[in-house]
């Protein structure tokens, strides 16, 4: 494994709070070289055992909470080293319309592509997966890693990271995890992308070839020509996700009409990556009015 400790340090030196050991970035940095050597030595010898991730609860606008799992500083660096190794091999195989947490791609790339396709397609299927990161099946992730020829030591560490217990923020109790990959982990987005590459991206190519979509992690929008197409796809996605251990949130998976003609009793807006897309009356350069779906809260498209 190619190791550039200082490069990895810069990649993970964020403002994340300390993990279960209480060590901050500042404390780690006081003996950086020695600490980096210890991590490298244990990773190379197969003796890196991730400590528990620390539970952190983030309030959501709907009154519920998002649960994060915060690794220790040392474990973030260890994850960062393996992630860089894996990313070189996995990123080239990912779908062109997968935008989340990938080098050279961004949320704004996904929004721009979505806006362009809204001019060509009349219907939108806004897909919502219930608690996606909590339901990722470990065996399917490990199977995908084996399929792509990942070394056994990489698969070993990915298994350990996915199975690392979570330490309760209330009483310190260790919570065993048999599925899911913790939000807050450095390597979790890459494992999540690999999982959805097979659970959704390639399935769409196989079953609905030519139907375009944008996916940013588990935030997905699919473009359809007819309402009947969107309805059938919604039903099939529910079945597909059930096959791989996921749950389609039927209450938040919406169908919207975004074309020029007014329709009653049909949603005419959807939200993607925090931006609202709605049908609005616009004017062309001649001053003529027309209706089209546009982002109305700040996206420059």
Automatic annotation (TrEMBL):
InterPro entries: DNA/RNA_pol_sf (IPR043502), Group_II_RT_mat (IPR030931), GrpII_Intron_Splice-Mob/Def (IPR051083), Reverse_transcriptase_msDNA (IPR000123), RT_dom (IPR000477)
Single GO BP term: defense response to virus
Top-level lineage group: Bacteria
EC number in record: 2.7.7.49
Enzyme class: transferase
Record flagged with keyword rRNA processing: no
Residue ranges of every copy of the Reverse transcriptase domain listed in the record: 1-277
Catalytic reactions of this protein: DNA(n) + a 2'-deoxyribonucleoside 5'-triphosphate = DNA(n+1) + diphosphate
GO molecular function terms attached to this record: metal ion binding; RNA binding; RNA-directed DNA polymerase activity
Keywords: Antiviral defense, Magnesium, Metal-binding, Nucleotidyltransferase, RNA-directed DNA polymerase, Transferase
Family designation: Belongs to the bacterial reverse transcriptase family.
Protein name: RNA-directed DNA polymerase
Organism this protein belongs to: Shigella flexneri CDC 796-83
